[in-house]
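Working notes for the structural subgroup meeting. M.R. asked for a predicted model of this chain before we commit to crystallization trials. I am recording the input and output together here so anyone reviewing the notebook later can reproduce the run.

Input as submitted:
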Amino acid sequence: MKPNRKRSLSLLIGMALLGVAAHSGISAERPEPRLVPLMRVVDLDVGQSRSVKFATGAGVEVKLLDLKEVRDDIRNAVRRATVKVQVGRQIVSLVSSTYRLPVTVGNVQIDCAVTKGYTANSSKKNAWGLVKDARLRLWPAGSALIKPGTFVYPVKQRWFASDTQMANVPVFVDGGEIPANKNIYYHYGLDFGGAEGLVEVVAATDGLVVSCGNERLPGYEDSPVAPRYDVVYLLDDRGWSYRYSHLYEIDGAVKPGARVQMGQRLGLLGKEGGSGGWSHLHFGIKSRQPSGLWGTVNGYPFIWEVYQRQYEPDIIAVARPHCISWAGEPVELDATRSWSRCGAIDRYEWTFCDGTSATGPKVRRTYNKPGEYNEIVKVTDAQGNIAYDFAVVQILDKAHPDQAPPAIHAVYHPTFDIKPGDELTFKVRTFRTTYGEETWNFGDGSPEVTVRSDGNAQVHNPQGYAVTKHAYDRPGDYIATVRRSNERGEQAVTHLHVRVEEN
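Returned structure, recorded in token form:
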């Protein structure tokens, strides 16, 4: 049952049942948190220090020494925030969020979740609940980041199967980077791009359904809940609130007042609500912050950790976040956050949209024509394991900053356990232009295929993505490419990595 059909009958029944539940005390009494997070959170101004104590009894003094924020000259958006922190007697520099993980310093792990610059010209009115210069989070050295057995990966698909927007990265897929926008949507949650109506969304934790669709459980008005037809809110045993947005379908068993189990199906990934037209799960976590306000919990380190627990990958390539620049100015592509279970990455091999190539963890390039580029990095470890990721680069014309180039989003399904001959569904949608068509090259020598999406002319159009099918005849790693140009000849291109296993 799709949420935009209002699920009227099931919700009426659900609310009738809630009357009984409320009478019995289920909705009248908010459960007290009974699961203490492993991390400790401190908000500090530069020059301020704080003592942090863990459940083990161990403690450390932490002091914020300095903060530097680098903004672009396109939108005045923060692109890199670096803090200098004294942890005990050691000093460390941390880059805030943007696909960064905690680092070990002495007997603690520490990260910087957010800095004040991300709240200054944000369109979301301080979604972080931060009133000081920076937020630091600490765990004991060697500790898990999220308690094992209490958290799972919220989408049933491969890591980085499609585009992502995570933790302070300015929104770009649906046109949000257009310089004329006065405020910036720094993406305070985690967006997992995926195939509309095909990818299963599951509960990351055990939790109470506080809101489902347009209905809210009574007694939770003082919470981050904002009911909408495509959204589910859960409250877990930590007292954290979870938001699952843009759902194509909400499972009929998910109703306000119900308790769901970790891994339970919540629905299917979609592009409903304020999605901007690209199909993805918006997964957001909020909790009470040191300021006393409800604010975002950066969940990227948690999904990184639990994905490794669940799927045990040997190697992961990371070439994110996306980059934005003017034509003719240099851009640095960075794959240093890639990871191998056996140790350091041995080789970084880049293949660029213009047919050239390079090696090394970081490369600098200059793009002379506006467009959306998608550069391939292949990483290889000492045991010969390989992984791919794709660096998205948006290039604008300084003479015409209001003429943003096209953007493109592509997905495939399924992403796991693909065997030779299995039929895969490929979907694509282009943004900022209705001119032209998309052309697929599936990377296996088969003929190219041309399709035509609606160019995001109608955000919620059920046929907005153009669909095609393809099967690979042999096992291997394939890079599928799809591209489309606008009337000015500016091109958007993207890639997908498809792994076909042996039978």
